[in-house]
Write a structure and sequence with these properties.
This is NADH:flavin oxidoreductase. The chain has twelve helices and 14 strands. The protein is an alpha/beta fold and about 375 residues long. The chain has one domain: TIM Barrel (Alpha-Beta Barrel). The structure holds ligand FNR.
């Protein structure tokens, strides 16, 4: 038994049966003209399933709400044409022996005017802030909140009906759900604002609605992060106790797996323990956790360092395997290494050369 065996051992949670512990991290690629995933997108995901990925989480895909989208050429998760495109993706991935979940996304106040589907619709946020202290977009009413919650539920129902293996709710990186979590963006004085536990209320309603719209055992993954696109140093929880007050309402609402987004998996989350964010999340909630962040990158990325995605010398895979073997987390998400190597799992297993990631690779959908 080598350390690597832990990564290639199966994982089962209710109806979810994964061949190994490797998860493709959600990555926006903007290759869906007209917001419809086409055959190039089908092949892109199929290649990762063929390459040995246990579970694919798709790029963020917009729920059916007028302000959900913030970018060009990202796929929608509503409307006949987009859903027909996704059906082809699911079937191709399953045909290759893989599993797949869509990442359900609402960008909130990150949306800029001019974006599809109606350029006149502004960004929506809990307090109308586009960044802490900057007031510019639409402050959500309770009717808006109810509408968005319903849109998440509708998307999850569609995902189940299309044959997806679960859904991931995007609650990370400073998009809508995270804007409710984040004190700097949520100044509400009603029940959707307040302390960190109170600021989970919107997410709790989303999770409960997704659960109610799907089967009792339909897997729900919830992705969250301390860091925000608008501020890499922002944090939700500064102590394990704060993290617990944040996680338990989400866990109780029906999350099955937590996807703990960090930029470097080896970073210690709180002083006094070597656990990372996924390690703490698993310990606090008792639920399976996914770790992520610079896994399999074999050189530092100076250009991306400026954007905050990565930095320093990447830790070796041995370090990751030791943490996995210690059962600090259950699954390992891989992003950029899977852009550079669609068959990263097979290459690792067979001890083949792993190509380095390069920003240029984002220009094409390979
Ligand atoms: C991302 N990431 C990301 N995260 C997310 O939750 N939804 C998304 O749509 C995207 N989009 C996206 C696009 C691109 C091009 C990159 C590089 C990243 C973050 C991603 O899921 C992952 O957390 C980070 O890339 C860190 O993992 P790696 O790349 O270091 O393995």
């Amino acid at each position: 038994m080598t350390q690597l065996d832990a990564l290639f051992s199966p994982f089962t949670l209710g109806p979810l049966q994964l061949a190994n512990r490797i998860v493709m991290a959600p990555m926006t690629r903007q290759f869906s003209p007209g917001n419809i995933p086409n055959d190039l997108v089908v092949d892109y995901y199929k290649r990762r399933a063929e390459g040995g990925v246990g579970l694919i989480i798709t790029e963020g895909t917009c729920i059916g709400h007028k302000a959900a989208n913030g970018y060009e050429n990202v796929p929608y998760f509503y409307g006949e044409k987009a859903l027909a495109g996704w059906k082809k993706v699911v079937d191709a991935v399953h045909g290759a022996g893989g599993k797949i979940m869509p990442q359900l996304w609402h960008v909130g106040s990150v949306r800029k005017e001019g974006m599809e589907p109606d350029g006149a619709v502004p960004g929506f946020g809990p307090s109308g802030l586009v960044a802490p202290g900057k007031k510019k977009c639409h402050e959500m009413t309770k009717a808006d909140i109810a509408e968005v919650v319903t849109a998440y539920a509708d998307a999850a129902r569609e995902a189940m009906n299309l044959g997806f293996d679960g859904v991931e709710i995007h609650g990370a990186h400073g998009y809508l759900i995270d804007q409710f979590f984040w004190a700097g963006m949520n100044e509400r004085t009603d029940e959707y604002g307040g302390d960190l536990a109170a600021r989970t209320r919107f997410a709790v309603e989303v999770i409960q609605a997704v659960r109610a719209a799907t089967a009792p055992d339909f897997p729900i993954v919830f992705r969250f992060s301390q860091w925000k696109m608008q501020d890499y140093n922002a944090r939700l929880a500064n102590t394990p106790e704060e993290l617990e007050s944040f996680l338990m309402p989400l866990s109780d609402a029906g999350v099955d797996i937590f996807h703990c987004s960090t930029r470097r998996f080896w970073e210690v989350e709180f002083e006094g323990s070597t656990l990372n964010l996924a390690g703490w999340t698993r310990k606090i909630t008792g639920k399976p956790a996914i770790t992520v962040g610079s896994v399999g990158l074999n050189k530092p990325f100076v250009d991306e360092e400026k954007k905050g995605f990565s930095g320093g010398e990447p830790a070796s895979i041995d370090n990751l395997l030791t943490m996995l073997n210690n059962k600090e987390f259950d699954l390992v998400a891989v992003g950029r290494a899977l852009i550079a190597n669609p068959d990263w799992p097979l290459r690792l297993k067979q001890n083949k050369t792993i190509e380095a990631y390069d920003l240029e690779q984002l220009m094409k959908l390979v």
